[in-house]
Each structure stands twice: as structure tokens, then as C-alpha cells.
TrEMBL record:
<keyword id="KW-1133">Transmembrane helix</keyword>
<dbReference type="GO" id="GO:0005886">
    <property type="term" value="C:plasma membrane"/>
</dbReference>
<feature type="transmembrane region" description="Helical">
    <location>
        <begin position="164"/>
        <end position="182"/>
    </location>
</feature>
<feature type="transmembrane region" description="Helical">
    <location>
        <begin position="101"/>
        <end position="125"/>
    </location>
</feature>
<protein>
    <submittedName>
        <fullName>ABC transporter permease</fullName>
    </submittedName>
</protein>
<keyword id="KW-1003">Cell membrane</keyword>
<dbReference type="Pfam" id="PF00528">
    <property type="entry name" value="BPD_transp_1"/>
</dbReference>
<feature type="transmembrane region" description="Helical">
    <location>
        <begin position="278"/>
        <end position="300"/>
    </location>
</feature>
<dbReference type="InterPro" id="IPR050366">
    <property type="entry name" value="BP-dependent_transpt_permease"/>
</dbReference>
<comment type="similarity">
    <text>Belongs to the binding-protein-dependent transport system permease family.</text>
</comment>
<feature type="transmembrane region" description="Helical">
    <location>
        <begin position="132"/>
        <end position="152"/>
    </location>
</feature>
<keyword id="KW-0812">Transmembrane</keyword>
<dbReference type="InterPro" id="IPR035906">
    <property type="entry name" value="MetI-like_sf"/>
</dbReference>
<keyword id="KW-0472">Membrane</keyword>
<feature type="domain" description="ABC transmembrane type-1">
    <location>
        <begin position="97"/>
        <end position="297"/>
    </location>
</feature>
<dbReference type="GO" id="GO:0055085">
    <property type="term" value="P:transmembrane transport"/>
</dbReference>
<feature type="transmembrane region" description="Helical">
    <location>
        <begin position="29"/>
        <end position="51"/>
    </location>
</feature>
């Protein structure tokens, strides 16, 4: 891409309605800044974290339950204090946020792929395919993600060794979150596809003999992605919150590995004994992360929904 085309593209982005709505809303700007900071710090946890909470050689139980550095008894090297295992809480939060973000991104991406596939088929072909897929969607929506995770976790505990079960815990969460999200994507894509397949450009592609799969991939899919992006953004926060909930219940990430849910669960045990920082700072991080994603999802909905323009 030449320099002139690059500047032209940047000007189009800056001059777009989406960017105008973004810069005219201080709340959205603040949410975007928070999301960038949290995502960047968590994904770059190996660079920004003072310690590696996975390195057992660097963890000393003597340093357990130390308060933040500005309180009496705190150590300057542990800015936000330590947890019950002697891990630096700031490092554990960064690595735990990375786990939550990766689980959210993978589960939402998987749900979008499945939802797009079934939604396009149901909306384009209709008939028996539509009836079967929509009944499957109805069945899937009757099972909450937490119940599915508990079911998979209980079955895996019965058949798998403990070490193998702990290593597969993250996949249980991803499957449970994806299971609860893809029916929403499928329903939205089906409704949009039913509208798009009646338009002139789709009928023209059918007249010239284009295969249905090519029409769905090249013509229909780009025009149904707007609502899907909104659903994916909003459900990213739901998936992150779901991972924390499952880890808090003991179904998700093992207690030996840092996670926002496990840190909150550990902090809940010490909230009445005075070590409240283990609960407060991971809880604030989780709340700020989910809130910023939801606010960005609302902004994206306002931009892509023609009824709200």
C-alpha cells in the first residue's frame, strides 16, 4: 500500500460516522482506553509482570498475604501485595486477565464460526434444514453455560486422571461458553440471511449459475457481519465473566494457576480476616474489563444499527 493510499484510508476512518460517534462520547473514549490498557497489559503479561506466577522456584510462602506496598508491612517489590501462595498479586492479575481474555476470544470466535455456518444454511436454504437447525438452536438455548460446564466437568472427573483433568479445564470453559453463545449468532445470521437472499444481487448471482456456497460466502456473509460483530463484542464480556464465575465455583482454572476467578475465590476466604486486597483488586480488574467491553459493544451497536443513526 502506497503512502497516499494509506493517508487516504486513515482520512476515511477519521472522517467516518463511527469515529465521530466515538470521539463525541467521553464514556466510549474512556472505555476504549481502559480496554486497550487491560488487553495490552494482559496479553503482554510476560513483559509487564514483575514476576512469573508460574515459576514455582520464585515463590516463597514466607511472602504470603503481604499487604500492598503503601500499607504497613508491605514490601516495595510487591506493589499490590501477595496472595496466600506468596505470588505477587499484580503479576497474578496480569496473567489471570490474559487467561480470561484468551478464553473469551477463543470461545466467542468458535461460537461465531459455528453460528455463521448454521445461520447461513438455515436462512439461505430454509425448509427442512431451517427447521432442524432452529430446533437444535432452541435445545441449545435451554442449557445455561454454567450447567454445561458442571456436567462436562463432572463427567471428565469420573474418567480422567486429576492431572489430565486440570490440564483440560480451560477447554471445558471454552466449550461451555461457545455452547451458550453460538445459538444467538445463528438466529441473528439466519434472520439477516433471509432478508439478504431476496435482494437483487443475490438473485443475479443465482441467475448466472453461482453455486449456493459461493453466494453465501462472497455475497451474503459480508452483509450479515454487522450484527454478528455487535453480538461477538457484547458476548466477549459475557464469556470473560463466565470464565471468572466457573473458576470461582472451582470448575474452571485450577487454584495453582492465576485467574481472576480463582483469585477472587481465594480472596473471598480472607475477606473477614483483613487481607481484602486479594479480593478487591482482581474484582475491580474484572469489573473494569467487562464494563469497558460492554460500553464498546453499545457504541458498535449504535454505529451499525441503521435504526439508531
Amino acid at each position: 500500500m502506497t503512502k497516499e493510499r494509506l493517508f487516504s484510508r486513515l482520512y476515511q476512518i477519521v472522517d467516518s460516522d463511527a469515529f465521530f460517534k466515538f470521539r463525541s462520547s467521553p464514556v466510549t473514549i474512556l472505555a476504549g482506553i481502559c480496554a486497550i490498557i487491560l488487553f495490552g497489559a494482559s496479553l503482554g503479561a510476560a513483559v509487564f509482570a514483575p514476576f512469573d506466577p508460574f515459576d514455582k522456584a520464585s515463590i516463597d510462602l514466607i511472602n504470603s498475604l503481604l499487604p500492598p506496598a503503601w500499607q504497613d508491612g508491605g514490601e516495595p517489590m510487591f506493589l499490590l501485595g501477595t496472595d496466600d501462595q506468596g505470588r505477587d498479586l499484580l503479576s497474578a492479575i496480569l496473567y489471570g486477565t490474559r487467561t480470561s481474555v484468551l478464553v473469551g476470544l477463543i470461545s466467542v470466535s468458535l461460537a461465531v464460526i459455528i453460528g455463521l455456518f448454521f445461520g447461513l444454511i438455515a436462512g439461505y436454504f430454509g425448509g427442512l434444514a431451517d427447521a432442524l437447525i432452529m430446533r437444535l438452536v432452541d435445545v441449545q438455548m435451554t442449557f445455561p453455560a454454567i450447567m454445561v460446564a458442571l456436567l462436562i466437568d463432572g463427567v471428565s472427573r469420573s474418567f480422567l486422571p486429576r492431572d489430565l483433568h486440570d490440564s483440560l479445564a480451560i477447554f471445558v470453559i471454552i466449550l461451555a461458553m461457545a455452547q451458550s453463545i453460538w445459538p444467538q449468532v445463528a438466529r441473528t445470521v439466519r434472520a439477516s440471511t433471509m432478508v439478504e437472499k431476496g435482494r437483487e444481487y443475490v438473485q443475479a448471482a443465482q441467475v448466472i449459475g453461482r453455486a449456493p456456497w459461493i453466494i453465501m460466502a462472497r455475497h451474503v456473509l459480508p452483509n450479515v457481519m454487522g450484527p454478528v460483530l455487535v453480538i461477538a463484542t457484547i458476548n466477549l464480556g459475557v464469556a470473560i465473566l463466565g470464565e471468572a464465575t466457573l473458576s470461582f465455583l472451582g470448575v474452571g482454572i485450577p487454584a495453582s494457576e492465576p485467574s481472576l476467578g480463582t483469585l477472587i475465590r481465594i480472596g473471598n476466604n480472607y475477606v473477614f480476616s483483613g487481607e481484602r486486597w486479594i479480593l478487591i483488586y482482581p474484582g475491580l480488574t474484572l469489573a473494569l474489563l467487562v464494563l469497558s467491553i460492554n460500553l464498546l459493544g453499545d457504541w458498535l451497536r449504535d454505529v451499525l444499527d441503521p435504526k439508531l443513526r
